[in-house]
């Protein structure tokens, strides 16, 4: 018998506005299994990658944009300045339908006030009394900001049309348990253009699939602390049926937002926010806690802005002006979290319940990511090219692969930080002189400023993805001539720290090179320099 607790997720903090970034195509395929997973495989129950929080928006076509709403009124032979007369009956229709729904189910619509507290906590309390059987759970009402239209007459063009504006209106939050999706809510504004919002959680959806397959599991606060068959769980997690989900969304839109049906509108569903989590579930909390605090300290110092972009498959533009930050939050109910944010996308890592190492990518704007897809131009022509990921519901499918790759890059980075013994084992290989074809190539002094500067340049995020050339090195190492840079590249190549790509004069850092560079910089910046600085103070 599977056991589970249905809890709503905690609110996700607002992430700063995104900034312009260059798209780069990764040259190396990220491994589907990170080295960290391999290293601790004997201490793991299993690993699960799955969508977590998914928030979708439902835009009612053609009312979802001003020109479409204007044309709709004209087709209905309504004056633009009679817009209020058109919108108010629709508002009353929604209010009547929701109040009737509440009455038929014996519910009292609860207004959200500061005294109410978090809706999630209230729903949790209701579920403990009600149970988790499918059906309506509760309805909240709240006054919230919304998008509206106002009639406008342009005196210069002599045209009358609807213009977008911001206001407030009553919103209903209809919480219910779907047989396939689990706990969901539909947010319904009562004023046109009725931009819907739908929420469900991928872990709860997966729990329903595991139950149907007869696979035992334990789900606590949207995290699986145990699954009888992790391999099958990962297969199921990758099989979210978007067509079935689309049909279900349309059904709920017609049920809880009557204008969809009465006006015969089409609902176009898009992605507002997603979270994708990779969970390493340990058998014993002691195994995770043995290295987790150490990693927290290192990540605060080791992760640079360019690294964050690299994890997410991008590189920083030269004129980048957006927000990039790493933040540690040790006071959380379920573990200590470190968060790396780049614009409206963030990577988080935390120890959930002290037994799960969770890597989670949160996306508030899917256009941050790019895919090679067909693009339709205004001229009517179509071409295949790199373009922002579509915000459509069906963008969840390619987005999953992009987020999985981001989590794996981060895990690979953690592996390098978590294995200082690699530096000890390879120290002689890196530091001693190497002879090749009667030419001697001196070793690298990992504590010397000059060699540390070279290593710091090599681990730059844009080089990890797009590679580097002799010219790139000279641009960052101003004291190097072309010949000196060529000899430096040879010193790196004979030690296997970099590799050359085909017949091109472009180089990439190898896994060995990345480990050595990370180890050297960590040793220099977190141990040697702070210790010597403290010694200098004592002597003075």
Topology (SSEs and partners):
Elements: E1 3-4, E2 22-23, H1 35-39, E3 44-61, H2 66-75, H3 83-104, E4 110-111, H4 119-130, E5 135-154, E6 159-178, E7 182-189, E8 196-201, H5 202-213, E9 217-219, E10 224-227, H6 230-237, H7 242-256, H8 259-262, E11 266-282, H9 285-289, H10 292-302, H11 305-311, E12 314-315, E13 324-329, E14 337-342, E15 345-352, E16 356-363, E17 370-376, E18 382-388, H12 396-417, H13 421-431, E19 434-436, E20 439-441, H14 449-458, H15 461-466, H16 470-476, H17 482-494, E21 498-500, E22 507-509, H18 511-539
Parallel strand pairs: 1-9, 4-5
Antiparallel strand pairs: 2-12, 3-8, 3-11, 5-6, 6-7, 7-8, 9-10, 11-16, 13-14, 14-15, 15-16, 17-18, 19-20, 21-22
Helix pairs in contact: 13-18, 14-18, 16-17
Describe the structure.
Strand 15 (345-352) and strand 16 form a beta hairpin. The chain is of the alpha+beta class and 540 residues long. The strands form 6 sheets. An 11-stranded mixed beta sheet has the order 4-5-6-7-8-3-11-16-15-14-13, with helices on both faces. It has 18 helices and 22 strands. Among the domains are: 1-55 and 216-232 and 270-418, no CATH class; 421-539, Winged helix-like DNA-binding domain superfamily/Winged helix DNA-binding domain (Arc Repressor Mutant, subunit A).
């Amino acid at each position: 018998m599977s056991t589970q607790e249905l809890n709503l997720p905690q609110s996700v903090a607002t992430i700063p506005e995104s900034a312009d970034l260059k798209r780069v195509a990764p040259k190396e395929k990220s491994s589907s299994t990170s080295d960290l997973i391999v290293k601790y495989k004997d201490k793991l129950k299993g690993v699960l990658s799955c969508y977590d929080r998914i928030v979708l928006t439902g835009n009612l076509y053609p009312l979802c944009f001003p020109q479409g709403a204007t044309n709709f009124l004209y087709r209905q032979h309504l004056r633009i300045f009679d817009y209020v007369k058109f919108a108010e009956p629709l508002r009353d229709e929604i209010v009547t339908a929701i109040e009737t729904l509440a009455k038929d189910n014996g519910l009292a619509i609860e207004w959200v006030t500061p005294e109410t507290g978090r809706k999630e906590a209230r729903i949790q309390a209701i579920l403990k009394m009600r149970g988790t059987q499918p059906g309506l759970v509760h309805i909240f009402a709240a006054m919230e900001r919304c998008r509206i239209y106002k009639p406008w007459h342009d005196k210069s063009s002599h045209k009358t049309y609807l213009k977008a504006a911001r206001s407030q209106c009553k919103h209903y939050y209809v919480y219910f348990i779907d047989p396939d999706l689990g706990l969901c809510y539909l947010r319904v504004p009562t004023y046109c253009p009725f931009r819907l919002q739908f929420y469900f959680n991928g872990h709860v959806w997966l729990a329903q699939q595991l139950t149907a397959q007869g696979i035992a599991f334990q789900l606590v606060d949207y995290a699986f602390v145990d699954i009888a068959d992790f391999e099958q769980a990962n297969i199921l997690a990758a099989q979210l049926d978007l067509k079935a989900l689309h049909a279900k969304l349309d059904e709920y839109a017609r049920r809880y937002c009557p204008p969809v049906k009465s006006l015969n509108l089409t609902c176009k569903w898009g992605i507002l926010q997603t979270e994708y989590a990779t969970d390493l579930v340990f058998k014993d909390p002691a195994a995770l806690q043995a290295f987790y605090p150490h990693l927290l300290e290192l990540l605060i110092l080791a992760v640079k802005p360019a690294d964050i972009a690299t994890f997410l498959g991008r590189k920083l533009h030269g004129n980048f002006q957006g927000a990039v930050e790493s933040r540690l939050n040790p006071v959380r109910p379920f573990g200590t979290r470190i968060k790396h944010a780049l614009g409206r996308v963030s990577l988080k890592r935390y120890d959930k319940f002290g037994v799960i190492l969770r890597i989670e990518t949160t996306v508030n704007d899917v256009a941050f990511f790019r895919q090679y897809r067909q693009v339709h131009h205004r001229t009517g022509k179509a071409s295949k090219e790199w373009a922002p990921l579509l915000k459509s519901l069906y963008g969840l499918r390619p987005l999953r692969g992009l987020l999985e790759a981001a989590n794996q890059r981060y895990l690979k980075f953690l592996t390098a930080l978590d294995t200082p013994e690699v530096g000890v084992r390879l120290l002689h290989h890196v530091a001693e002189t190497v002879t090749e074809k009667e030419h001697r190539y001196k070793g690298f002094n990992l504590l010397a400023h000059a060699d540390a500067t070279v290593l710091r340049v090599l681990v730059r995020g844009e080089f990890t993805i797009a590679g580097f050339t002799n010219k790139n090195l000279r641009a960052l190492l101003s004291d190097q001539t072309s010949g000196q840079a060529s000899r430096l590249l040879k010193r790196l190549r004979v030690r296997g720290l970099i590799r050359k790509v085909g017949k091109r004069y472009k180089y990439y850092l190898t896994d060995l090179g990345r480990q050595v560079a990370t180890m050297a910089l960590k040793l220099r910046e977190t141990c040697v320099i702070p210790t010597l600085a403290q010694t200098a103070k004592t002597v003075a």
